[in-house]
Write a structure and sequence with these properties.
Helices cover 46% and strands 18% of the residues. The chain contains 28 helices and 20 strands. One of its GO terms (biological process) is cAMP biosynthetic process.
């Protein structure tokens, strides 16, 4: 019988039975949604795992009692914020109890008094509150910014000895209790959940981002950056002092990984490597860099590699005074590169008074590797892949990724890069790799399967994008929370999360994460302009949407912001009744859509890519495009409009019924009706939508009573009577 010491969190829904009696289906769905989008990702973010679900409750285990309490507070704050916007009878409120004690390990389950006490403490908590044992309070009282109010000795059911209990004060200042060592207020749920997975365990100054208010404007962003009291840092590109200048990829890779590792340290804000890269090979003044990026501290240095010997010089500068806080030299072998990175992280944390109590290497947390040869091959591939490469160079990058994965089959980031490469493949790149379109799609999912074993942020980014296309934005949001937690310094994680939230019907939250993207990477881009415009459009704020969408560079070689952004822009102008702007941008939109070779310029193409969860969101977009004169169907459709079925007629005719003839194109388990279109999410492809017409000359025997019209194809079919 195995035993171990664990922190156990028990949570239970208040008034669950009464809610189920009033609205069984709705209550079940609300609770399931909260578990999937809040409880599961938040518990995972704090290094816990759920080992038992009990209808309206759960039990979770944590290796750190600090993590358990922080998680409980984040959950209660998030629930309070979400409950504020829903009616009283639809609110999900929970009680939480936490205990630190010995548990019996049996497979994935946990038993014993350590678990039982947590469950009983949960029953003592107030709705929306947290009750902890004395062991828990004593362990964390000097480490967290929460007060603890004594509840005295409590006699718990089926527990022999009384247990001293404490109520967690979520707002210690209001309760008249002094704040512990950390005096920084926790920030609200819709950004707190995104920041900070522990790379090195919790430090003394575990401060979090403070809330800031949209809209996404540089002035507002600057003001809110000043409100963030955490130490803030930028890692400038290290200099390559090696005789072989071609080894610059090693220096770039080291800088990028160092940025990511530091970004995972709780209590430290780190600007993205993308923002820092603008200073590469430039003479800069510390004060100017600090002011431009909104940070106080600057880390700079150099790397020299001769054979297997490495020397790393690094120095930390206070941008406000330009004074040197710390400087150190690290010597070692290339085979020690990961240990050297860890030393730099620990040294910087020490210089900033962040006391680290443990550390993990990159192989443990982000789909990384501890194999230096695999790491080097991966960096060579990334150096080629990230520049505007030729098809032959693209193929070379793929071979480097494959080499890295062969050297370390557990190298999740390499597998994710291969999946991305095959997803990005076009005709010339496919020819260079001698891979067909079908072969490329096969490889995308093949390598995603490998990457899933050791997930990295780039793995989650691609998975979320694919889930959105398959009308599964709930899952995409949960996936992107994990990506942000793994690398809080990567703006692509925040933009990907914003995209998932926009399509999930949560544009107000999407806007917050776009602010976060601009914080780690000041200076916006076309993708962010589009997502910001979509977030405003999703709230019916057409003037604000136009403001962002007009900033997209229509001359850029990147087609996607133009393709998406122009559709939203034309629709927004149509809603505003501005016919001149509609006419001006409609022609540009048609040209961009024709360039896609995706079936011309029509609303079937729009619905293929704008896969909203809520009917009102796609309706808002299509209504504007209707007003702008964008046709619903391809020009080649010659069927009589009077024979076209309405949405209600499609729903009655097709959903839940067997079809004969061309019915193989319908996957009824994923079909739905939006406006007057039938849509179907095709697994491992994406969404497709079409119109249904009656065939006046059709008969059941010939199985051609109806015609389904899609972007390129038509299918005749008859329903089974």
């Amino acid at each position: 019988m195995d035993r171990k010491l664990s922190a156990i969190l028990a949570a239970d829904v208040v008034g669950y039975s009464a809610q189920m009696e009033r609205d069984e289906a709705g209550t079940f769905e609300r609770l399931r949604a909260r578990r999937k989008e809040l409880f599961e990702p938040e518990i995972a973010r704090h290094h816990g795992h759920i080992f038992k679900l009990m209808g309206d409750g759960l039990l979770a285990e944590f290796g750190s009692v600090v993590d358990a309490v922080e998680c409980a507070v984040s959950l209660q704050q998030a629930l309070a914020e979400r409950n504020a916007s829903v009616s009283e009878d639809h609110r999900i409120r929970v009680r939480i109890g936490i205990n630190l004690g010995e548990v019996i390990v049996e497979g994935e389950d946990r038993y014993g008094e350590g678990v039982n006490v947590a469950a009983r403490l949960q029953q003592l908590a107030e709705p929306g509150g947290i009750c902890v044992s004395a062991k828990v309070a004593k362990e964390v009282e000097k480490k967290l910014a929460f007060g603890f109010e004594p509840m005295g000795q409590q006699k718990l059911k089926n527990i022999a000895e009384p247990v001293e209990a404490f109520r967690v004060l979520l707002d210690p200042a209001v309760a008249g209790k002094p704040m512990a060592v950390n005096r920084h207020p926790r920030f609200r749920r819709n950004l707190a959940v995104a920041i900070g997975v522990l790379v090195v365990a919790v430090c003394l100054a575990a401060a979090w981002w403070r809330p800031w208010e949209p809209p996404l404007r540089p002035t507002a962003l600057t003001a809110n950056a000043k409100a963030d009291t955490r130490p803030s840092l930028v890692v400038l590109p290290f200099d390559n002092l090696s005789d072989d200048k071609a080894q610059g990829y090693l220096v770039d890779g080291f800088t990028e990984d160092l940025t990511t590792e530091l970004a995972r340290v709780p209590g430290l804000f780190v600007v993205s490597r993308n923002a820092a890269s603008t200073y590469k090979d430039k003479e800069t003044k510390a004060a100017d860099v600090a002011a431009a990026l909104g940070v106080r501290y600057i880390l700079e240095g150099s790397i020299r590699r001769v054979g297997d010997d490495m020397r790393i010089n690094a120095q930390l500068i206070d941008g406000s005074t330009t004074g040197h806080l710390w400087a150190e030299r690290f010597d070692g072998q290339w085979t020690d590169v990961f240990a050297l990175q860890d030393k730099v992280v620990v040294s910087i944390a020490g210089a900033l008074k962040l006391r680290l109590v443990s550390a993990q290497g990159k192989a443990d947390v982000a789909g990384g590797t501890r194999n230096p040869a695999a790491y080097e091959a991966y960096l060579q591939g990334m150096e080629i892949y990230n520049r505007r490469n030729t098809p032959d160079e693209f193929a070379q990058a793929v071979r480097f990724f494959q080499q890295a994965l062969e050297l370390d089959p557990n190298f999740g980031a390499a597998a994710a890069s291969l999946a991305w490469a095959f997803w990005d493949m076009d005709g010339p790149r496919g020819q260079a790799l001698t891979v067909s379109d079908i072969g490329a799609l096969y490889n995308v999912y093949k390598y995603l399967g490998e990457a899933a074993k050791h997930p990295s942020p780039s793995y989650y980014q691609l998975v979320a994008s694919l889930l959105v296309r398959e009308h599964r934005s709930d899952e995409a949001v949960a996936v992107m929370f994990k990506a942000v937690a793994l690398d809080p310094s990567d703006p692509l994680n925040y933009v990907g999360l914003a995209e998932a939230l926009n399509f999930n019907g949560r544009p107000d939250e999407a806007r917050d994460y776009l602010v976060a993207a601009n914080r780690v990477d000041p200076g916006s881009n076309d993708h962010r302009h589009y997502q910001a415009g979509l977030a405003e459009f999703g709230q019916g704020r057409f003037e604000e949407a136009v403001d962002y969408l007009e900033r997209i560079d229509l001359q850029s070689p990147d087609p996607w912001p133009k393709f998406y952004g122009l559709q939203v822009l034309v629709s927004a102008y149509a809603h505003l009744g501005r016919s001149d702007q509609v006419a001006a941008y409609r022609d540009r939109l048609r040209n961009v859509m024709l360039e896609r070779k995706d079936g011309g310029a029509n609303q079937l193409v729009t619905q293929r890519y704008f896969v909203f969860k809520n009917p009102a969101d796609i309706g808002r977009l299509l209504d504007g495009l209707d007003k702008a004169g964008l046709p619903e169907l391809p020009e080649a459709v010659d069927l009589d409009a009077k024979d076209r079925l309405t949405g209600s007629e499609i729903r009655s005719l097709i959903l839940g019924r067997d079809l004969r003839g061309g019915g193989a194109w319908i996957d009824k388990s994923t079909s739905w009706v939006q406006q007057n279109f039938l849509c179907d999410a095709i697994p491992k492809v994406q969404t497709t939508c079409g119109a249904i017409f009656r065939n006046p000359a059709g008969t059941p025997e010939r199985r051609n009573e109806y015609t389904a019209v899609f972007r390129f194809d038509r299918f005749e079919f008859s329903p089974v009577k």
